[in-house]
TrEMBL record, chains A, B:
Keywords: Aminotransferase, Iron, Iron-sulfur, Metal-binding, Pyridoxal phosphate, Transferase. PANTHER family: CYSTEINE DESULFURASE, CYSTEINE DESULFURYLASE FAMILY MEMBER. It comes from Streptomyces sp. 900116325. SUPFAM superfamilies: PLP-dependent transferases, SirA-like. It comes from the Bacteria. One of its GO terms (molecular function) is transaminase activity. Pfam families: Aminotran_5, TusA. It catalyses: (sulfur carrier)-H + L-cysteine = (sulfur carrier)-SH + L-alanine. Residues 391-415 form the UPF0033 domain. Its cofactor is pyridoxal 5'-phosphate. This is Aminotransferase class V-fold PLP-dependent enzyme.
Length: 460, 460
């Protein structure tokens, strides 16, 4: 039963499990107390901080344990913004940050601040030059992920850090997806990460704040963790997080080469095995273990369900999955297809056999889903072609509007147009993406009584 | 090595350990995902919520798991205040709430709100009538602990809840110290608790919000836990928390009777064995396992250190302990002695032998500490008595000012005064408390060049 969703949460690393067990008996007391149980807890906490700080590349007194990566991001952003409030209230983020960053930015805006999203290219990367242009006199903080969680693309952190340094703006790096693979390039001012992403336990995030960075923790005062993470310390989990970070780092060099080759195989074979597929994200500057592709004429939820029945656990940035009704903001920012989206993120130890079996299973699963939805196999021109056609897809959800577009495009002559009426948010992203893949012209979007009218001109 | 500080953190209950281990292998995936590992995690989370809700006495959909009791308190208060912002911005708390409540109140005040502290009697209890008078038209929220964490006194929650209901004010009960012993009396609107206080793991708090209570979660949006607790769910710990809550509840009836008797023994024997001791807190309406007393002429840190050497782990609300420089706000609000303060809180399973040994060890430890500090053994009148004396205790820390006062009181005639100059914050609390214990008259406090002048008249 191969689990291919390490980017959501990695199975507990054996070292994490072992360290957690050992620390359960030693680390339950209050480390602020003077008696032996408290001193023992304090020793464990201090040792874990030293080990984690070394892996992060910071001083132990710069590192705080939070209760999750999300909390690390929220506290890091709010503390840095408050610490530099006199400079200004402007925040810069990339358009493809994790939702915890974007939600913190939205909260900042709701409280009277401003923020700018730096766009990305079709591979999902910001341009350092464009990022640098977004920095202003009143920019209090800039945020950039080390690598994207949905498509794996690495960001130019070192270059952006240098531009931030030159502008005197602290840079916070969300390293949640990459920290297990290696340290973040130097130059960051704040860093956030999450233990369960590298095989550590749930309940532990890391927040590092470099000495000299102005930082004012928000929320009610609490003396623990330098005032940066309220609540009783979760020492057994912290010990397990630090121990497993060291363990995965020791294995990272060899494992990243191995998984990189498996991902290269998926990247190369999926477009050969499955028609109408777009593999997204940077093919080279990327996380070793993660690849994302989108399948035309397929809805994400059915695809996940069928892959689950075939015993593969993957995730999707499509809009048609149970947890969300809008397509992934990452795919949207990249301008790539979101329908039938599949993210494969291999946990350490994934075997070549599992990947082979995935590649054997995938084509049949995709074509079954397409068949059920009545997706076009090939586009045959209709004998009695009209100059333009209108397709009413109102009330229909992704991928139906694109399927209906694909079905009728052959019925108009070359130069004619198809207008798709749709009130599904995903259509705004997927119809232009389909046009790019099919080399048809996307004319544009017009408001309609309900939803929007998307106009496509047949070119071939 | 008897550990007598369960009120800080209880050792992990065997059921918690067992449940945590089992859930480590089943509960690491994202419960929002559709694949089997996600569904399995979701089942565990749902079952834990059902079990915990039953113990709390609420519906599962009213209960949220947070990352700590402190977080539950912070989120509960900020969410309830924001939800009722149109009613007003007034908050009512008791003067002896946990610091997490008082810090949240201070943050509310810093953001433009107001709050009132309801005073307590010398036993540490609020009067329901006085609490009711503090409720105003614009009161958005009232907070009252179920029982005090430092002295064990139970609060009149049911009566206060009834008054709150009549005024239309939601009541938030901090049940951190009592939830393991039984459900909170009905009538509350919000309830907060902390798993590691009942023998559950670190990293889990409970926040219950009754249906119909206006509640607006603060901070960046996060879809997990009904939007009330940001961050990836810590399912193994949540499972262990729920399982151990059921387990300690099953043992609570018998264990509370047993520990109540041991605490009664301590309450009775300590004043017989140790001179100049004040046992504080309500002797009857109290937590079963907790007792606090204060020893004149003793500094808290040395006492804790000596008890630790004798293998007893206890805590102290004295000012002279490493983690704090001001005396406990609880003891201060009660108007009782804070110097030489010892809190004994027995974990489940504490043996009568351990308590007996504590009672054998304590008198010697206290008298040794007093001897080192040169504390008075008895007060003998001096032959050449002056009408008034000034004692300069500036720069000296608790309990030295009280010791110096006790040493010279015999040197003034009955009716004469001793003025103690002190810049130690604890003196403001401890000199009046000493006067009450010694039946001398506390005349009052006057400002001085440095610190304050505390005037005491000899009555006997």
């Amino acid at each position: 039963m191969p689990y291919f969703d390490a980017a959501s949460s990695a199975p507990l690393h054996p070292v994490a499990r072992q360290a957690l067990l050992a620390a359960l008996d030693e680390g339950w007391a209050d480390p602020a107390r003077l008696y032996r149980e408290g001193r023992r807890a304090r020793l464990l906490l201090d040792a874990a901080r030293e080990a984690a700080a070394e892996a992060v590349g910071c001083r132990p007194d710069e590192l705080t344990f939070t209760s999750s990566g999300t909390r690390a991001v929220h506290s890091g952003i709010s503390g840095a913004l408050a610490g530099r409030r006199r400079v200004g209230r402007h925040l810069v983020v990339s358009a493809v940050e994790h939702s915890s960053v974007l939600h913190a930015a939205a909260t900042h805006e709701a409280q009277g601040g401003t923020f700018a999203e730096v766009p990305v290219d079709r591979a999902g990367a910001v341009s350092a030059a464009v990022y640098g242009e977004a920095l202003r006199e009143d920019t209090a903080l800039a945020c950039l992920q080390s690598a994207n969680h949905e498509v794996g693309t690495e960001q130019p952190v070192a270059e952006v850090a240098e531009l931030c340094r030159a502008s005197g703006v602290p840079l916070m790096v969300d390293a949640a997806q990459s920290l297990g693979w290696g340290p973040v390039p130097t130059g960051w001012s704040l860093l956030a990460a999450s233990a369960h992403k590298w095989g550590g336990p749930s309940g532990v995030g890391l927040l590092a704040v470099r000495k000299g960075v102005r930082f004012a923790p928000q929320g009610p005062a609490d003396e623990r963790e330098s005032g940066r993470a309220a609540g009783f310390e979760n020492i057994p989990a912290v010990v397990a997080a630090a121990a497993s970070l060291r363990a995965v780092r020791a294995e990272a060099a060899a494992e990243s080469v191995r998984l990189r080759a498996l991902v290269d195989l998926i990247r190369a074979r999926v477009p050969e095995l499955v028609p109408d597929v777009e593999v997204v994200g940077d093919p080279v500057r990327r996380l070793p273990h993660l690849v994302t592709f989108s399948c035309l004429y397929v809805d994400g939820e059915t695809l996940l369900h069928e892959l689950d029945r075939a015993e593969f656990s993957v995730s999707s940035g499509s809009s048609c999955t149970s947890s969300t009704l809008t397509p992934s903001h990452v795919l949207r920012a990249m301008g790539v297809l979101s329908e039938g989206n599949v993210r494969v993120s291999l946990p350490a130890g994934t075997t070549a056999e599992d990947v082979d079996r995935f590649l054997r299973v995938l084509p049949g699963v995709v074509s079954e889903v397409r068949e059920k939805l009545g997706a076009p196999v090939s586009v045959a021109p209709s004998p009695a072609a009209a100059t333009s056609l209108v397709v009413d897809s109102l009330g229909k959800r992704c991928p139906i509007p694109v399927i209906e577009l694909a079905k009728v495009i052959g019925e108009v002559p070359v130069g004619g147009t198809v207008t798709v009426l749709s009130d599904d948010e995903a259509a705004r992203l997927d119809i232009p993406a389909w046009c790019a893949m099919r080399e048809q012209e996307y004319v544009g979007e017009e408001p309609a009584d309900r939803g929007s009218a998307y106009v496509v001109r047949r070119l071939s």
